[in-house]
Design brief:
The protein is of the alpha/beta class. It is 33% helix and 20% strand. The protein is built from eleven helices and 15 strands. The strands form four sheets. Strands 4-5-6-7-8-9-10-11 form an eight-stranded parallel beta barrel, surrounded by six helices. It starts with 13 loop residues before the first strand and ends with a helix. Bound molecules: guanosine-5'-monophosphate. Guanosine-5'-monophosphate (5GP) binds next to strand 11.
Length: 348
Amino acid sequence: MRIENDPKLDFKDVLIRPKRSTLASRSNVDLDRTLPFLHTNASWTGFPLIAANMDVVGTMRMAAALGALGAMTALHKHYSADELVSFFRTPESANSFYSLGIAEADQEKLGVVSKQVAIRKICLDVANGYSEKFIEAVSIMRDRHPDALIMAGNVVTGDMTEALLLAGADIVKVGIGPGSVCTTRRLTGVGYPQLSAIIECADAAHGLKGLVCGDGGCTVPGDIAKAYGGGADFVMLGGMLAGHDECDGEIVYEERNGEKIPARMQFYGMSSETAMKKYAGGVAKYRAAEGKTVEVPYKGAVADTMQEIMGGVRSMMTYIGAMKLKEVSKRTTFIRVGAQLNTVFGAD
Ligand code: 5GP
């Protein structure tokens, strides 16, 4: 047994220190980034935010709405091959990832789809990216799809970030346990404070000219700003994008003054009992659910939430004098405030 004494940070443990700036207005900052990929000659330009490949949030309607704002969507993996072929033939798919796990059936479906339509962005996703088998799966994926952008995860440490990049990933997805509907930390005791995971994995990835996507744990626009400050090239959101018109799932209505008002929507982890019942006929005997099911407030059109997120990030950039998103991590100084911030916002 070993104990690491280095402080490890979550978003709530820090604030970003303001810096002298020559920027006159929020409208002077540029939220787009152009990110070159390690294994192909391609690059991508846009606002580097990705809707999570969870079946409530990673929908084709979400992809259309976020794509129009220059952001991305990782489609959930439960669409049929026919639905995926039709979708990836439309221009709306330009900012979308095809998501899959490492199960045989997932690989077969990708084979069927990619014979009919070019798949340019792949998200290879497992809860625990620390297995040899996963590294092998990334390497096979790179061989089969040499020109595709490949995002793979999840991991939380620099050594494994490097291993995945060297195996063929362009973007490593970072986060074990921070998700809003994730119960991994409670069930297993395993995890890593998300901001430190981003900082350490970004450092490792950037040394190899790879990229990282901070996945999970953002609850307010300021957390997204902190993720970029810590070096995240992309940020992936589940819970913050749940509850919108573009999500799948039923809206729960409430009656107020004799009128039916949309009030809440269901949101659940992809390893929750709800998801496993829906897709695998229940929770297998050898495992326990590592996700939960919640109701989130109904929030209307996702474009409004995106405006708030983009507004928050823009404003952070003016506070620290960063004209381009690319400059944010260089201009970020984090101040540790853990205990105080918990008293201000309420500990979770
Ligand atoms: P959020 O933005 O809601 O905090 O986090 C979204 C991320 O949580 C997803 O992208 C995924 O990595 C993770 N996640 C989704 N469902 C589950 C689950 O059932 N269990 C765990 N451990 N993580 C989940």
